Fold each of these.
Amino acid sequence: MSLLELRNLSGGYDPIQIFSHIDLTIEAGESIGFFGPNGHGKSTLMKTISGVLAPWTGDVIFDGQRMNRVGDRGSRRWRNFNYDVVTRRRMDPKTVARAGLIHVPEGNLLFPEMTVAETLAIAPIAGRGRGDEAHQLELVHALFPRLRERLKSKIRFLSGGERQMVAISVGLMGNPKLMILDEPTLGLSPKLRQELCQAVGQIKASGVPLILIDQDVTFLTELIDRLYLFDHGRISRKLEKSEIPSHDDLMAMLFGDHAA
């Protein structure tokens, strides 16, 4: 049985469709990567997979369970009316997280007035019943020993790298069966980027499959079994690990030989 299956998935931000007709399968134990230009729909696709955005059409099947209601999205004729008040969403992000599909979005979206300890304390709600919270916390402390020193600090007082450590730790505390990491090292210094890359490698080695978005091809290649090139809201090419070329060659595939 596949771990994750996307069937003819389409979505976006009403009224603009961002991606369309995505078919993808991840088998148990596999990790995949996405590479492509910024602004072409990778993050929107990830938000739809995790239910933050409801899919317009198609299905998300995770660990044998359909995450979305059957049928296409209904027409939203009046733009200023909040349909979610009176209609059930096609997909509930809480259901997705409790099933074990954990999304760590780009930009470490955390509550600034909460401390690190408070943030880590509420994170296991998503994974309750699937694992040992104490074990997950030990894993977090082993991966990010710096957070032990910052447990009483409010999120707003942390550096960008420390906030990203907390964001990934929140995902781990949910005891994921599959973790989506969207640009986990974006905007970090080279030293912190290297630390985060090593931590992500350890997460993969611990047995957590990944969907990883990053612009560093070398980083992706070290961690994934398959790479998807994504542009203009479509998967334009699928590359097995042995087929992944250099960054310049990937850019040429996306934009033509002049890009390299």
Note: Strands lie at 4-13, 16-26, 32-35, 57-62, 65-66, 101-104, 178-182, 210-213, 226-231, 234-240.
Amino acid sequence: MKTQQFVVIGLGRFGSSLALELMDLGYEVLGIDRNEELVNEMSEHLTHAVVADATDEEVLKSLGVRNFDSGIVAIGNDIQTSILAAILLKDLGIPTVVAKAISVLHGRALEKLGVDRVIFPERDMGIRVAHQLVTPNLLDYIELSKEYSIVEMNVPACLNQKSLGDINPRARFGCSIVAIHRDGGVLVAPTAMDQLAEGDIMVIIGAKKNIEQFETILNQ
């Protein structure tokens, strides 16, 4: 089976972190940046890293970018370059194009260009940290939309040895526990008979207001 290939344009803090994580996950990564110093720092860690202008279509073609499965525009400090790079990735026919945005307007422009996913790293991290600060058991928070989210939460002592049927979060709170992380691995789609243990991690999905209600009950 062909290893999925990613091209990451912009090797700053966000781009380099993303590229390294993709490598750790076993994928092939081409890193592109105008900054020779950044490219040199990453060259030993990525499949390929090159100094290039990502707004030059001929350069991208010569690098074989059109053959990659996904393209990530991780440029944050130059909106014009970010938009031009995203346009070229779409024009070259890359199946999935993801781009970092530094403002709402930047994000809207990228969406109108047909970018498959626009991400706001600083905003998203701020939201996650805020939720973690006010909810002691919360480990992670991912916003799916304005109404829905996924959270990872430690199982508190009050739920120790209780089954999902006992808690019945869907009927009582309108949210669902879709997975449980524990030392033995991950239990996906647990049944009503499965029990929680203090130290487990629940993965919960649902409307934000319903999850917040669930969190409030647990913290009482």
Note: The mean pLDDT is 87.
Amino acid sequence: MKSKKTTSSGKTPGVLAIGAHPDDIELGCGATLSRLAHNDVYILSVIMTSGGCGGNSTERYEESREALKILGCNKIINLDFNDTKLYLQLKEMIDSLERILATEIPSDVEIMRVYTMHNADRHQDHVAVYQASMVACRHIPQILGYETPSTWISFSPQVFEPLEENHLEKKISALSKHKSQSLRKYMQPEHLWILAKFRGQQVDCSLCEGFVVHKMVLQEY
């Protein structure tokens, strides 16, 4: 039986995953979350909008919850900020994230890492989420930016998460729940495999997800 990992304060390690829209988290760090869940890391996911500009809001809400449950997320919080207009709601997003960190984390869990959007993203909502994350999560030791299709031109990862095939399969299964987005090329399994293989090849691994470092306080071993 494997021993349960704890932080230096004796708590269960946790991560916070933040996305602007339904499917952002799954696309950017879905396989990594599956791997962390397998290792008993507590996972809290926060989606800022219902994604109404990309489909029916209620439908997308349900899709995201089904998908994130497949990945092993312990708690899923769907907020209802205005899709495509998050840059106008920066303070409100910061307030919401700070409130979530203060009230929604179990007392025996310590959030050690944040997965959020990349600051060099061409989607205005994604940049706004990055900005809100950096302020609201300023006391968390590690903040990593994940890859989405709207970052592909400029994305240059510095940190790589090695993956087993079953973690990538979980990501693909999760994304298959987003039926409203199923015709988008980047949602197709072959594209997801190609990207994971490419990121893995960059660091001599089989499969990887890549991340940029927004903040990294190294932990003692």
Note: The chain is about 35% helix and 20% strand.
Amino acid sequence: MLDTSPQANSLYLDLMEKCLANTIYGDDPTDPWTGKKYHVALRENGKDWPSKAHTMIGAKRLRNTREMAEAAIKEGIPGDFIETGVWRGGASIMMRAVCKAYGDTSRQVYVADSFEGLPPADPTNFPADTGDVHDTYEELAVSQEQVSANFASYGLLDDQVKFLKGWFKDTLPGLDRTFAVVRLDGDMYESTIQAIEALYPRLSPGGFLIVDDYGAVPGCKQAIEDYRAANNITAQIFGIDWTGVWWRKPHE
């Protein structure tokens, strides 16, 4: 019988955090700005590109993802979990781990990504992305096969995990689901606005909207502010670390 006691959940999910961010062994990063040496503070705040860890969002944002998923289950907020832009899958794996820890077999975890990196900037339609070069970073392209293998390595690849391969403009608008947690990690204005336009209307009242790149990428922040303004969203935005933020969708 699955032990879903608070202590067992905490021990399991604490260990998942350490494994996914690899703060246990501290793998050296591959980015050009850290000197390619592991630093505890950089990994905690998601300021490096790990060579082996399954997430680059850092321990604080990973913990936030866990806490939002836990809150959704504890409070009975209806809907699935989704991440748009997953890299090696770490945050999505954490959401699946939370379901596992609490014995929640009703929710699905949607893993949405091109699995080919980011699209070239389209400044004609999205001026805020002018000069954006995210599409040139080969490190950001991780195949669906590799992400699946990462889920499997934790024993979490099953029929509760749903992959959505393709550009967000093609995969998200027709997604006829209700969500309790929506995590946006699309970096660019285009990716962010397409994701929030498709998914926020499907977020349950009381559900959580998380934005990974709000403080790091001006285009992402502008997309969020444009959407909030256009839809009269005044819910308070809470910071996670230097870049991640979240808010809770108000009840009607």
Note: The chain has eight helices and seven strands.
